[in-house]
Amino acid sequence: MRVYVLSILIIPLVTAVVCYNITKPRIVGYVSLGGTVALAVAAFPTIAASLSGTVSALDDTFSMDALSGYIMALVIFLSIASAAYSISYLEHEYDAGLTNVRGVRTYYGLLHLFIFTMLLVTMANNLAIMWIGIEATTIVSALLIGLGFHKRPLAVEAAWKYIILCTVGITFALLGTFIAYYASTAVIGTEGALNWTTLRGMAYRMNPETMKLAFIFVLVGYGTKAGLAPVHNWLPDAHSQAPSPISALLSGILLNTAFYGIMRFVSIVEPSTGSDFTGHLLIFFGLVSVGISAIFILVQENYKRLLAYSSIEHMGIISLGIGIGGPVGIYGALLHILNHALSKPLMFFASGKIQSRFGTTNIANVNGVLSSMPLLGTLTFIGALSLSGTPPFNIFVSEFTVLKAGVDRGLWPVVVLFLIFVVIVFYGMLSGFGKMLFGRPGDGTAAQAGHRPGREGAGEWLANTVMIFMAVAVIALGFKVPAIIDETIRTCVQVLGAK
Amino acid sequence: MKSWIEAFSIIDFISVGILLTAVTLNAFKSIESYVKAYTINSWLLAGLIAVVAVLVGETHLYIAALLTLATKGIIIPLFLRRIVRRMRVTREIQPYISNSLSLAISGILVAVVYASLKEGIFITGFSKNVLQISIAVILISLFVMITRKKALTQAIGLLFMENGLFLAGFSLTFGMPTMIELGVLFDMLMGVIILGIFVIQIKRAFASADLDKLTVLKG
Amino acid sequence: MEYFQFLVIILFSPLVNGVIKKLKANMQGRVGPGVLQPYYDLLRLLKKDMVVSTVTSWIFKATPYIVFTATATAAVIVPVLSTASPYGMMGDVIALIYLFALARFFMALGGLDAGTSFGGEGSSREMTVAILVEPIMMLALFTAAISAGSTNIVRIATVHPAVFSPSHLLALTAFMVAIVAETGRVPVDNPDTHLELTMIHEGMILEYSGRYLALMEWAHYMKQMILFTLAIDIFFPLGIAQSGNPAILAAAVVVYAAKVTGMALLMALVESTRAKIRFFQLPSLLGGSFVLAFLSLVTHIMMGK
Fold first, then answer.
1. FRET label pair with C131: which of A22, A248, A478, C76, CA 20 to 30 Å apart?
2. CA A316 centroid distance within chain
């Protein structure tokens, strides 16, 4: 078992090094894809074990339970999807002269390093190691956003904002971790005081005032990383300027790992302070996020930025779910994590293709995607419907669950506001993407730069397969949540201690 | 040795010194002075940890002091100096708030921190003063980050904030197990390196490291 | 003996200034004037005729006497060698600052009275500096007063033997900057020249000659020495005599002389290593010093020491 656990960490590192050293740009992509598949294979036993019980290794430094397994499974799934999509994306960029061999190698190397850091976060038992992992994800993803491609001033600006704002936030999170450590050493001494497994047992004995303070700092810190308003300012820039596969990873899973940190803290803080304190804070931030993103979605002119604000909205929904609490609320939040992790990357992949075909990220300049690229258009349409919360797609199900939890708890103002904002988002998303999908192509489109029809190599085929798979999952999950996923989420809810 | 340290309240002197270097960040105009202030701040921080190590007698604190000295006191300033030389820029251009005013505001921030943390603080760690000073340092460096225009100054403000945080954490917990401190320091080191890389990228992309130009992405 | 310790200041202040000049000259590689030169200057001035402008009023004639008397009174208040002074009860920090303010006020008026542009310039600059410097002095002295529990200088001098806490150190630094500004030394003002650029103190006394000039210069020397003594009393009064015991008094004399010489050395060092800053930069320098004094107060309140 220990071998498997360690291999989860070693494989992406090895892949990163190998990818960086390969000099042929055509091959690198496939090697990286192979790396992610190997990772999936190696991780499978560990994840399976963690879903039924706790797995630990290295003296309890790493420990995984159902929640870690769930998130890790998402990380790995999205890594495979991203790696597969990256092949055609980078091929296109390379052919269009936007990057060189060095850039391609750096990209793949950093990609796997990024995957490594996210895995570290999910596997960490120790709160400080979790922090180290999250800080490491910031650093590596900043590099991925800002470098690797030829001088793009906007990307550098976005990466700078990202790294400064997130590092400031994470510094506060570290302060919160320190305060939590202080509280726990006061109760049990220094042995294992930061280990989640230990803390889970004795959390109710910690000083509530201290833990409240710790939680505030941690919420501000990890909340910045998770894209909660009002500390979300870096998100639209970073997620829109990053290359599409990276945007998919950032929106799809990095924001969720930040929430993973918040959820762990909530389960430690709640036993001593009661769930009202954390609940109210989370609901507040959630509503503000959904509200602000709704407003900004209405005025967006750039479709990638639109998707970024949509991420903020969905993170707000997750926060609402955790804040409302209770088994239904948390179930809804966790399900929403999965659904968002399916729909958002689908949309980013699709928009990447639109961008390479039309050469612009401006909504006004893109027209008639459905007629000129039918497959892509359909997939985009499915994704847009899903993200705006339309039944019978998957996001509607999880939004509805969260809503139901709110109604059960009698939080009527919250429910009403939530509904209003969701309606605004629905309108904004569909009008934005509708403008792009419908109409005739050639209606004021910009030059269709770099498009070479008929260049349907293996990379294109892979990218399309990935997107089709995700679209099918999006639809399927809208009808019924498969038993295995349902089981997993219920176990996670138990792990988080909701009664 | 121990009683000498206590009699002369060396800890208080060092912590006020740390506060002072953070305040002087507002008064200087040249980036090299900022780097010097950071170096002194880090050395004082390492010194404080060492003094506490003597007082409490735990060996892992000595190691922590040495680690802090090595990374924050030596490696990072050297790296910063290299960046400054490569960027060939030495002066902060007119900040949003003039130096005298920002100096005054920092003083007021310090007073506000003391006043608000006086009552009802239930956390003391080993010294309430040190905790208050560390929070004041964090706020002052945040303030500096907000009001300056050069990317490198923002990065240095961030470094000061991390120092303040380190001090706060240290005063609360006497440091964490060495492994973790190592990890945290390594992370910060990597962060600094990345920041340095980006500062240079900004200069290349925008032909100046003036953050006023980094306002294209809006809305 | 304690009754007459103020004579020490009146009689020896020119000597202190001479020592500073000599030290400065040595540091700059010159021979410089002798240490007794200020005495010769004062005697020469006292014997000379006076030329008084016809457009001046009684203020011009009264100012030298007022300034000298006010400064001498301040000398009486400050404990120089011994804290067992009978005037101790009058020795309040606030009273001292007000006495200096009185002297300064009349000096400024005297400078304006002659109607020359140099006089007006000196007066306005002096007042600007005063506005900036007095808060620094007050804050620094108040910090020390709070820690000693009283604003009486004698009381402060007996409570603590030396600078012993960070807030005191900060207050001392701020006070030193204030002394440099008050005594008109580089980098605030250049006491050696009569150039228009550097005229603050020199500008105000430009019109005076003979006896009046002697009184004004002497008052200036006395003010300098009083400020030194004040700094010594408040921040490191170690060694000051607390009783009338002759042996202790003798020791106190030696210690005091050593401390004043140290201050003189410090002043000479500061003057030799700095260039005079331009007048409009003065608010920045003094503003920074004010923040130091403010921090010293806040630190004292926070740390309780």
1. C76
2. 13
Q: Do B12 and C298 touch (CB under 8 A)?
A: no
Give A499's contacts (C-beta < 8 A, 6+ positions apart).
A327
Q: Show the domain range for A499.
A: 275-499
Q: Is residue A462 part of a domain?
A: yes
Q: A160: distance to nearest CA of chain B, Å?
A: 7
Q: What is the pLDDT of residues A441-486, one digit of tens each?
A: 664 444 444 455 545 577 778 888 888 888 888 888 888 888 878 8
Lookup result for tokens 């930040």: A258
Structural domain total, chain C: 1
Q: Do C288 and B103 touch (CB under 8 A)?
A: yes
Q: Among C37, C16, C63, C73, which Cα is nearest to C211's?
A: C63
Burial degree of A276 (CB within 10 A; 0-12, 13-18, 19+)? exposed
Q: Which of C295, C296, C297, C305 to mutate to test the interface with B (most CBs of B within 10 A)?
A: C295
Do the chains contact at B123 and A182, CB–CB below 8 Å?
yes
- Among candidate residues A167, A94, A81, the one with its CA nearest the CA of residue B159: A167
* Residue B158 token pair: 């961030």
Q: What is the DSSP string of A418-462?
A: HHHHHHHHHHHHHHHHHHHHSS-TTSSPPP-TT--TT---HHHHH
In a domain, A490, yes or no: yes
Written as one letter, the residue type at C276 is K
Instruction: Supply the angle between the helices A127-146 and A208-226 in degrees, to the nearest 10.
Output: 20
- Give the C-alpha separation, A335 to A343, whole Å: 12
Q: Is the peptide bond before A245 cis (omega within 30 degrees of 0)?
A: no
Our CA angle for C125, C129, C133, nearest 5°, is 170
What is the rounded CA–CA span in Å between residue A3 and residue C153?
76
Q: How many domains does chain A have?
A: 1
Whose tokens are 């002389």? That residue is C257
Evaluate whether A386 touches A394 at the Cβ level (below 8 Å): yes
Q: Which residue of B has its CA nearest to C303?
A: B129
Show residues of chain A in contact with B197, CB under 8 Å: 143, 147
ipTM confidence score: 0.86
Structure tokens at C135: 């808060």
Q: Is residue A443 part of a domain?
A: yes
**What residues in C contact B130, CB-CB < 8 Å?**
none
Q: Which residues contact A67 (CB under 8 A, 6 or more apart)?
A: A260, A263, A264, A492, A495, A496
Q: Range with the lowest mean pLDDT among A303-312, B21-30, C33-42?
A: B21-30
A372 vs B34, residue with greater confidence: B34
Asked if C165 has any chain B CB less than 8 Å from its own CB, the reply is: yes
Is A444 exposed, middle or buried, given 0-12, 13-18 or 19+ CB atoms closer than 10 A? exposed
Which residues of chain A have a CB within 8 Å of the CB of B217? 154, 157-158, 161, 236-237, 240-241
By the CB < 8 Å criterion, does B106 face chain C? yes
Question: In angstroms, rounded to a whole number, what is the distance separating the alpha carbons of residues A204 and A196?
Answer: 13
Asked if B33 is an interface residue toward chain C (Cβ–Cβ < 8 A), one would say no
C and B touch with 3+ CB pairs <8 Å, answer yes
**Residue A201 scores a pLDDT above 80:** no
CA A301 to each of CA A132, A153, A311: distance values in angstroms, whole numbers, following the listed order: 37, 19, 16
Instruction: Considering only the beta carbons, identify the residue of B176, B204, B217 that sits closest to A128.
Output: B176
**Highest mean pLDDT out of A475-484, B8-17, B154-163, B180-189:** B154-163
Q: What is the Cα–Cα distance from A175 to B172, expressed in whole angstroms?
A: 10
On whether the pTM is more than 0.90, the answer is no
Cβ–Cβ below 8 Å for A132 and B169: no
In a domain, A448, yes or no: yes
Q: Which residues of chain C have pLDDT under 50?
A: none
Size of the B and C interface in Cβ pairs below 8 Å: 51
